[in-house]
Amino acid sequence: MNLRKNILYPIGILSILVIISGFSLFCVNGGHYANELFPPQNFEDYKKDWEKVDSLIGLGLPKSALELTESIFIKAKKENNHPQFIKATIYKIKLSADFNEEFIEKTVVDLKNEISEAKQPAKQILHSLLADIYWRYYQANRYKFLERTTLINTPKEDIRTWDMKTLMNKIIINYYASLENPVLLKKTNLKDYQVILTEEKESKNFRPALYDFLSHRAVDFFMNDESSFVQPAYRFELDKATYFSQPEEFRKMDLETRDSLSLKFYALEILQELVDFHLNDTEPTALVDVNLKRLDFVRNNATMDGKDSLYIQSLKDFEKSVQNYHASTEVCYEIAREYYKQSRNYKPLLSDKHKWEAKAAIEKCEEALQRFPDSFGAENCQKLKQEIEKINFEITLEKENIPNKPILSLLTFKNLSKIHLRLIKMDYEKDRELRQTTTHKTELVKKYLKFESIYEWEQSLPNDGDYQQHSAEIKLPSSLSGFYILLASESADFDPGKNIMSHQSFWVTNIGYISQTTPKSGYRFYTLNRETGNAKKGVHVKLYYRHYDYHQREYQYNEGGTFISGEDGYFEIPALDLNAKPNSFFLEFSDQGDRFITEDRFYHSVYSPREDRKITTTFFFTDRAIYRPGQTVYFKGIVLEKYKNTHEIKPGHKTTIEFLDVNYQKISEIEVVANEYGSFNGSFTAPQGGLNGRMTIKNQTGSKSILVEEYKRPKFEVTFNPVEGSYKLGEEVEISGIAKAFAGNSISNAQVKYRIARETYYPWRFGFFGFYPEKATLEITNGTTITNESGNFTIIFEAIPDHSIPKKFNPAFNYTIYTDVTDINNETQSATTHVHVGYKALTIKLGIGEILMTFNLSHYKLPILTDRL
Q1: Contact at 8 Å (CB) between 297 and 267?
Q2: Could you tell me which residues come within 8 angstroms of residue 40 by beta carbon, excluding any fewer than 6 positions away?
Q3: Is-contact 102 96, C-beta < 8 A?
Q4: Fewest CB atoms less than 10 Å from the CB: which of 30, 147, 814, 842?
Q5: Cα dihedral sign, 92-27-267-778
Q6: Of 484, 478, 508, whose CA–CA distance to 593 is shortest?
């Protein structure tokens, strides 16, 4: 539950009226504000013209509407009517989208032209709009950008040719251009642009100036995780506790990074400017809003340990500084929400840690409600308080229980000190009818309440006021064989309209069964005494099929056979005849007054025996795996015939062998006959002058792939020396290798290009449960070096960890070193090696077998294997 996002932000949202991309804005008008705003200007609103445009749009005439919008656009531009100019620009984008397939590409060109001519502050708004258009273009063409490599040369102006890095640069440039001349933007009253914004109630203090509006738009983009694709090894990290400092200290922080595409850095930089802008406001609503946004962003992206504690402590300190204002209740809400979030980590079977956080959240909400009960934050706190105090419970018990024995059930509950229970004995068929004819749970409970109960009692529950969910086992009274309904209510009146209620159905029976399928699509059942496990003979069993009657609009049940368990408790249900229709079925067991109907559904299918037939297979062999164009391809084949579990050769087998190119088109074919050993041979010539690649030799019963490539035999090889010593994260790792000719001489003065890629893995991860952060492979560095006179080369790099993964997950990092060595003859050979570095230096494995003999434990030796990362 995130009440702040669901309630607070819509109050500040101002959405542009008609833009197709969902271009939405935050807006406020006026407000108690330390920085003087320019008074609103009296721009003409062109009301009659826009009414005509809207009318044409309503009539489905977008081209006519666009023509009229163009005239408004020209008029507003001529009169320097900035709000109407922006509104007309937005309408043009929307209307072009209705009939222009590549409207975004055209919109980008038009916006660039308008930006070059526009005056401030309309220019800044257009920059913000262009950045948003760029990002929307990426989202519409995501798959294309993810498949593109980074461009080396300067990109063209055509957005369709850009790579991800180029696009991100353009977005960053335009969002920052939207914040140029901050003095003007900070004094521009957003009320001037009311014609393109929808103002919500109580929003005036959140975004008092145009600068707020544009800054928050930029920040919202930079905070978006999806936009952070291009990440170098030296990327900007929020790894200092000072990022959680109070506004006065945060605005003085020196922010710097080498990462020119770090969106987190840009977000933090703009948030810093916003904090500084509103720090001295007489009414701190805007300051509270931006600071809460900043702290939440830092907490979500910080890489240091203990960030949750730093976050909540910063909230507490900030609350004290604004506690005399209504906006302080929004900070109270964030503190309470964080407490409630932490309370969900309570593990009652392990410790009392986080046990009382939910209660602390209630206390913080009550503090806000007492301080400023009519404030927006208090409204959020009231909703959170109701959520925490909500009563809920659930009863779980076995579907089948033993007669005349107490029945144990599990009750999970929250905020409940007493529960009321009723036990009703009911005919199973009657209950089935009620469930089929009643769709709403409340109505079904009302029908159950009309039946007479055989037991009714109340059960006290432990409740220490921690607002946590607890579990307790409660005893149900022993009962005779039959079908029962258990009703549970939070109050004694069992009124489903006022109380939370639950119901469970179960059987009391001594009949049990075990089922298994037979090889011929039938079923084999073993009936047993549920208490002792002994076989039950003479149990009468009826099989029922269920089908839906579309005329009666209800399920019908038809008997499909009767069976009796034998001396050993077994009985079999054969498969259906070939002409029968497969269907699901259930069983009714009865034995000396004890009756039981299965909840399980079994599927009755037809058995169609598979006919044994002879299968011929051809295995191909070639003299090599790769050939040059024009080279002769020699092949051999062996033909085998399989029948049941035997394999035999097929002498005299005649077949046609085809040679197919990379497009699976036939190059040539030959006919062959297997000799007395079931084998044959032949040859083809690899094609010249066409497309090289993987080609195929095949017949009707087998195939073999080969490669046809232009290649030459390598003159030298590149190998890495074993890694010596152990390394720690953050230290420099030294890797050495050698380039040596197959003739034995060293390859000196050869160029060595290398790159290092980091991959995260978890060597101590057991099983498949629990969350482990998944991170993509990241290139951390690259470079070049040369081999010395002996052909040796050395690569040194820093083992940079991924600080975004908490150490509690014990991650380890695999650094893959890729090298390409080029000699003076321009021959290139490659090699790869790996270095594993983690927070722990060793792995320990216990060599314990799956089975240990107890009589030999005293002499058993436990093998322990250790290995460096």
Answers
A1: yes
A2: 189, 191, 192
A3: no
A4: 147
A5: negative
A6: 508
pTM: 0.74
pLDDT of 199 strictly over 70: no
Sign for the CA dihedral angle at 803, 804, 810, 814 comes to negative
Which string of DSSP letters, residue by residue, matches 593-618? TEEEE-S--EEE-B--PPPP--EEEE
Q: Diameter of the chain by CA atoms?
A: 104
Q: What single-letter DSSP state applies at residue 109? A: H
3-state secondary structure 529-579: ECCCCCECCCCEEEEEEEEEECCCCEEEEEEEEEEECCCCCEEEECCECCC
Residue 202: the pLDDT is 63
Element (H, E) at 410: strand 407-414
C-alpha distance from residue 321 to each of 288, 291, 314 (Å)? 10, 12, 11
Burial, 194: exposed, middle or buried (Cβ in 10 Å; 0-12, 13-18, 19+)? middle
Question: How far is it, in rounded angstroms, from Cα 506 to Cα 424?
Answer: 11
List, as one string, the DSSP characters of 489-505: ESSTT--TTTS-EEEEE
Distance between first and last Cα of the chain: 42
Rounded to whole angstroms, the Cα distance separating 19 from 437 reads 48
Does 208 sit behind a cis peptide bond, omega within 30 degrees of 0 on the bond before it?
no
Residue 214's Cβ-count burial label (10 Å; 0-12, 13-18, 19+) is buried
Cα–Cα distance for residue pair 430/434, rounded to 1 Å: 6
Q: H or E element: which one contains 22? A: none
- Enumerate the β-bridge partners of residue 116: none
Query: In whole angstroms, what is the distance from residue 526 CA to residue 541 CA?
Result: 12
Which two three-digit tokens encode residue 217? 């738009």
Task: For residue 708, give the nearest of 729, 724, 692, 690 by alpha carbon.
Answer: 692
Give the integer Cα–Cα distance in Å for 221 and 108. 18
Distances (CA, A) of 507 to 113, 429, 476, 625, 718: 78, 13, 13, 67, 73
Residue type at 700 in one-letter notation: Q
In this structure, are residues 522 and 555 in contact, taking their beta carbons and an 8 Å threshold?
Answer: no
Q: How far apart are CA 377 and CA 4, in angstroms?
A: 8
Q: Find out whether 563 and 571 touch, Cβ atoms under 8 Å.
A: yes
**And the tokens for 524?**
């084999």
Burial of 813 (0-12, 13-18, 19+ CB in 10 A): buried
Residue 5, token pair as written in the block: 């996002």
Instruction: Give the span between the Cα atoms of 148 and 133, in whole angstroms.
Output: 20
Q: What is the mean pLDDT of the chain?
A: 86
CB atoms within 10 A of CB 617: 13
- Residue 26 has a pLDDT of 35
Looking at residues 534-543, what average pLDDT do you find? 94
* Percent helix, strand and coil across the chain, each to the nearest 5: 30, 30, 40
Across the range 626-640, mean pLDDT stands at: 95
For residues 418 and 492, the answer to whether their CB atoms sit within 8 Å is no
- Distance between CA 534 and CA 477 in Å, rounded? 25
**Which residue from 10, 28, 111, 122 is spatially nearest to 76, judged by alpha carbons?**
122
Residue 162's pLDDT is 87
pLDDT per position as a tens digit, 550-590: 888 888 889 989 999 999 999 999 988 878 888 889 999 99
Three-state DSSP class for residue 657: strand
Q: How far apart, in whole angstroms, are the C-alpha atoms of residue 734 and residue 151?
A: 31
Q: Residue 66 has which token pair?
A: 């666009």
Residue 354 is classified by DSSP as: T
Helix (H, G, I), strand (E, B) or coil at 511: strand
Q: Where is pLDDT greater, at 499 or 704?
A: 704
